[in-house]
Amino acid sequence: MTMQRHQYDVVIVGAGGAGLMAALYATKKGAKTAVLSKLYPTRSHTGAAQGGIGAALGNLEEDHPEWHTFDTVKGSDYLGDQDAIEFMCYQAPAIVYELEHMGLPFSRTPDGRIAQRPFGGHTNNRTGKPVRRACYAADRTGHMILQTLYQQSIKHNVTFFNEFQVLDLILVNGKVAGVVAIDIATGTIHVFHTKAVVFATGGWGRLWEITSNAYTLTGDGAAILFRRGLPLEDMEFYQFHPTGIYKLGILITEGVRGEGGVLINDKGERFMERYAPTVKDLASRDVVSRAIYIEIKEGRGINGQRYVYLDVRPETVNKYAAIDGRTRPDGSPYVVTAEELLQKLPDIIDFSRTYLGIDPMAEPIPVQPTAHYAMGGIPTNIKAEVLADEKGTVVPGLYAAGETACVSVHGANRLGTNSLLDIVVFGKQAGIHAAEYALGTDFEPLPKDAADFAISQLETLRNSKGSERIADIANEMKRVMMDHVGVFRTEEGLTEALNTIRELKERYKHIHLDDRGKIFNTELLSAWELGNLLDLAEVTTVSALARTESRGAHWREDYPKRDDKNWLKHTLAWKRENGEIELRYKPVVITKYPPKERVY
Ligand SMILES: Cc1cc2nc3c(=O)[nH]c(=O)nc-3n(C[C@H](O)[C@H](O)[C@H](O)COP(=O)(O)OP(=O)(O)OC[C@H]3O[C@@H](n4cnc5c(N)ncnc54)[C@H](O)[C@@H]3O)c2cc1C
Q1: Closest-CA residue to 334 (of 323, 342, 343)
Q2: Is the distance from the beta carbon of residue 46 to the nearest atom of ligand 1 less than 6 Å?
Q3: Residue 77 near residue 562 (C-beta atoms within 8 A)
Q4: C-alpha–C-alpha distance, residues 147 and 103, integer Å
Q5: What is residue 69's predicted lDDT score, i.e. its pLDDT?
Q6: Which of 20, 382, 500, 587 is most buried, taking the most CB atoms under 10 A from its CB?
Q7: At what angle do helices 491-508 and 470-484 cross, to 10 degrees?
Q8: Cα separation of 423 and 470, whole Å?
Q9: Residue 105: which residues within 8 A CB-CB, separation 6 or more?
């Protein structure tokens, strides 16, 4: 196999919001930096984010970083590390202004300040009512963040290797020495000799059948580190967003409910009143997703089907705004027109027309919960350094940021708008600290066989003589994850899922590929990605089976209570040499807010 070598101080894997922010800062610090991305940067999933980025700017009403901190702790069901949460929420206003100064075209208030809207779980801590904290650029906030950061990266001469897929991490004496990647267009293997690596590879929503996540979200970074003997944290906590388009999973942003949209069952009831009397449709996502499932289970899905309605027709919005006593910032009653909604939610209206043939200004949108966001992932500290164990031992030169990392600011459940915030805050930390580390250390010698493991993984797949199809294995995995490792879980279901996943891992050893070539062999790379998903499916299920309590997004029907006495702790999972998964635990960092029952 042809091979090429490169040398950089810092290598960033991934060009979403987290990777680009890291790249910008590492480059600005003077480190010779390369970004490797399997996608052209502006195709990263960050570009699909719609609703907003959370920051207590207080542009429209009173708000404080401390309220944002408390809401995030509460939303996390007290599993988030409070030192990290406080750091993120206090950094938020400055980093949003930094994005604004880079040129990000935020939507504006009439007097020219950054516009803000309400989002689930974000509240005025005195009244408990929703607060306008989500800064947005219509319903294309992520798109604008990604484009802005990419333009800045070009301006600052960041080096990109686009459509390079990273397959392995090289550690020498426990320190980072490099990564191995394949150039997708040619099939050439590239070894990057480096002092520091930042993994910013995003999430793994393709584990589930109904998902809001792009095809490329296959957890590559997390799976690579897991295979290299590093732990993954809190993998049992995976968020289902309440409002995916029925059957398709495509996301309808929470911003729709922020603008006044309500969820309605078959009886025409606004059922969230019963589940969260104060914030109603703007309760946190785990609460709303469970409520929808219960409505469906109890026969109140629309026409008895597995969906409910999200109603954002102006007359409905205005009716419930009047009932809630909602006002505009100037104190006048909240009354919207179709034109105003169209201006604030253009893409959502467009999606509904394109994918459903529905005009949301005239008809309600059929929705069901959709797999959305990984709270767990590669354990890191506030400096984005990757941790090797429950004692907080740092892996020299290794960093992670964004959805693939677990700092942990989201604990058991993430609040909307807090991921875009997380990626820019901790992407920046990763860039700064990776560059500082790299500029103060020497290269580790790169072993001669550095690329062997990566090559052997691909060659095993390419030359496999079996008859199994990767699509069949993937479909079976997605179905079992959806049925048993989704919004509701039980010991019986999780055990069944685990057995199936292990069978699928066996079948995976006997696949058949049609394309054995080198050029753009996307079939081969899809097969490699499926291997990552299967590893992550197993570790998610093992972690979920062990946790005999319900907290945030992890809901065990057989253990329906949160159990702080036994389970106020983070899970760490390792893959041992014999292939078994070992679980250990570490305490949650609690500074100001001792755990309380969550009431919305
Ligand atoms: C539809 C949708 C809407 C959302 N809306 C919001 C919102 O309104 N507010 C909010 O806060 N959050 C939102 N989120 C969540 C948020 O957008 C994501 O969590 C966040 O953007 C992830 O950013 P990231 O930089 O970590 O990863 P991504 O943006 O997913 O980027 C991952 C990068 O890693 C690269 N990569 C992956 N594997 C490899 C590999 N093996 N080799 C090389 N490169 C690799 C990819 O090419 C890509 O560049 C939304 C998510 C979705 C799916």
Answers
A1: 323
A2: yes
A3: yes
A4: 10
A5: 98
A6: 20
A7: 170
A8: 32
A9: 137, 144
Pair 348, 457 in one domain: no
Which phi and psi (to 5°) does residue 586 adopt? -140, 150
Ligand 1 near 550 CB (within 6 A) = no
Q: Which of 369, 396, 428 is the last residue of a domain?
A: 369
How far, in Å, from the CA of 220 to the mean position of ligand 1?
12
Q: Report the atom number in ligand 1 closest to the C-alpha of 427.
A: 25
The total domain count for the chain is 2
Any domain includes 437: no
In whole angstroms, what is the distance from residue 50 CA to residue 73 CA? 23
Q: What's the predicted TM-score (pTM) here?
A: 0.96
What is the band of 1 on the pLDDT scale with cuts at 50, 70, 90?
Answer: low
3 state SS of 164: strand
Cβ pair 41, 160 in contact under 8 A = yes
Structure tokens at 427: 């992407």
Let me know if residue 26 belongs to a domain: no
Q: Of all helices (H) and strands (E), which one includes residue 193?
A: strand 189-199
Positive or negative, the Cα torsion across 547, 551, 556, 562?
Answer: positive
Evaluate whether residue 80 is within a structural domain. Answer: no
What type of residue sits at position 563?
A: D
Question: Under DSSP, is residue 575 helix (H, G, I), strand (E, B) or coil?
Answer: strand
User: Could you list the residue range(s) of the whole structural domain that residue 514 is in?
Assistant: 452-562
Domain assignment present for residue 469? The answer is yes
277-333 pLDDT per residue, tens: 999 999 989 999 999 999 999 999 999 999 999 999 999 999 999 999 999 888 899
Nearest CA to ligand 1 atom 6: 49
The torsion angles phi and psi of 163, rounded to 5 degrees, stand at 60, 40
CATH number for position 526: 1.20.58.100
Give the Cα separation of 406 and 589 in Å (integer).
13
